[in-house]
């Protein structure tokens, strides 16, 4: 393969790794296999990334960036209407975007589990989690402002609640998809999030 700038080669290797591991699982993503996938020497991977750990971190970061890129357009252009209606519509849009690529979702789940035992990946995952929570909090704040609703709890608290439910349903989708059940669950997640956000869901005093 012809010589290309390091930044471009880095992107190519990450994309090749993701494509390979989406098909065959995280365990298949050795530097040798990824190099073969792209048609370059194995030493190219080590030259660009320095180590297998750094390569794995780069793949993890890229998958996280893609997740954020799915969410951000929705957050930046939320629909009009009442708070409950707008949130329910937004949740449906997010769900459709989230389930478009189950291979990527499965790989993300594998990497998340691996991150629990890897200090570097754990920090990377924590940064991604904070980023997602921040974007979701911004979305909730924008929806509330546009609909004239007042949030009874801090937006980050409501965002944490919503993401816990939404991501849990996504995990169940990967294990045993059920379109009708998922539709009903999304309706309940939206309703519960609205109730929490507007203060109509009873809470312990310490929350």
Automatic annotation (TrEMBL):
Keywords: DNA-binding, Repressor, Transcription, Transcription regulation
Transmembrane intervals: none
DNA-binding residue intervals: 30-49
Domain HTH tetR-type: start-end pairs: 7-67
InterPro entries xref list: BetI_C (IPR039538), Homeodomain-like_sf (IPR009057), HTH-type_TetR-like_transc_reg (IPR050109), HTH_TetR (IPR001647), Tet_transcr_reg_TetR-rel_C_sf (IPR036271)
Repressor as UniProt keyword: yes
Protein name (record): TetR/AcrR family transcriptional regulator
Species of the source: Nocardiopsis lambiniae
